[in-house]
Amino acid sequence: MRIKKIIILNLIFLIFLFGEKGGKKMKLKLPKPRYKSEVSVEEALLKRRSVRSYQKSPLTLEEVSQLLWAAYGVTADWGGKTCPSAGATYPLVIYLVAGEVKDLKPGVYQYLPEEHSLKLVLEKDVRKELTAAAWQQEYILKAPINIIITANYERTTSHYGERGIRYVHMEVGHCGQNIHLQCETMGLGTVVIGAFNDKEVKRILNIKEDVLYIMPVGRKK
Ligand SMILES: Cc1cc2nc3c(=O)[nH]c(=O)nc-3n(C[C@H](O)[C@H](O)[C@H](O)COP(=O)(O)O)c2cc1C
């Protein structure tokens, strides 16, 4: 009986130890974004086009950091972000599908704006499955990364009821444009993809939020 108790206690200890270590390992602090660029807002607006073919070249963590910050980074002490948000409810959750990023394992990561870090969700390159779930739009597969804009509607509808749904969709537009314009300043190209099988994409990414945009990003050819 005593041995049984010791074994169980040891097991609990091991689970705690590895769980804790695993938890720490699963988060990655991103490099600080830069706030200046050679390209003006006007030039970025002028040049912005949907780009659907990319160089076969990995992105760096600095580039990933910059794009995620532009998408939904924190820019005010009180938690304000790069996107306007109805009642500052911030319903969006941004995921990174990493395929080819220097110093980052392929996988699905959640962007944590408050810490400007990544949290591993799934250690697997899902680009092929994602392409199939988006009617074979093969730029998803060819892009070194895809940024996924998802939403937790409840955060906004709990304040605004039905009207909150339209507010969430408006915010997704702001976020997508932020990524588009940031790409232009970095020699990168992207496109907003709205045509995909909702259920399939959610299943592949292993997430609970609703997916609204898939944005493949790569170097312009
Ligand atoms: C809501 C929305 C959904 C879109 N879905 C797709 C898509 O599934 N696949 C795609 O290749 N482009 C998609 N696009 C991009 C449009 O095709 C593109 O913006 C349009 O042709 C204008 O070209 P431009 O972005 O180069 O100005 C979408 C754009 C919007 C706004």
Your description of this structure?
The protein contains 8 helices and 7 strands. α3 runs antiparallel to α7. It has a single domain, classed as 3-Layer(aba) Sandwich (NADH Oxidase), CATH 3.40.109. With 221 residues, the chain is α+β, with helices and mostly antiparallel strands. The relative contact order is 0.19. The protein has a 7-stranded antiparallel sheet, with helices on both faces. The structure holds flavin mononucleotide (FMN). Flavin mononucleotide (FMN) binds at residues 49-50, 52, 137, 191-195.
Could you provide a short overview of the structure?
By secondary structure, the chain is of the alpha+beta class. The chain has helices at residues 2-25, 41-47, 61-72, 127-133, 139-142, 154-160, 163-185, 198-205; strands at 27-29, 92-98, 107-112, 117-122, 145-151, 188-190, 210-219.
Low-confidence stretches: 6-23
Strand tally is 7
- Find the structural class using helix and strand composition: alpha+beta
Describe the global form: globular
| Ligands and ions found | flavin mononucleotide
Rg of Cα set: 19 Å
Order of helices and strands: HEHHEEEHHEHHEHE
* Overall pLDDT confidence: 92
Please give the order of strands in the largest beta sheet. 1-4-3-2-5-7-6
Topology:
Blueprint (H helix, E strand, L loop, with lengths): L1 H24 L1 E3 L11 H7 L13 H12 L19 E7 L8 E6 L4 E6 L4 H7 L5 H4 L2 E7 L2 H7 L2 H23 L2 E3 L7 H8 L4 E10 L2
Antiparallel strand pairs: 1-4, 2-3, 2-5, 3-4, 5-7, 6-7
Helix pairs in contact: 2-7, 3-7, 6-7
The protein binds flavin mononucleotide.
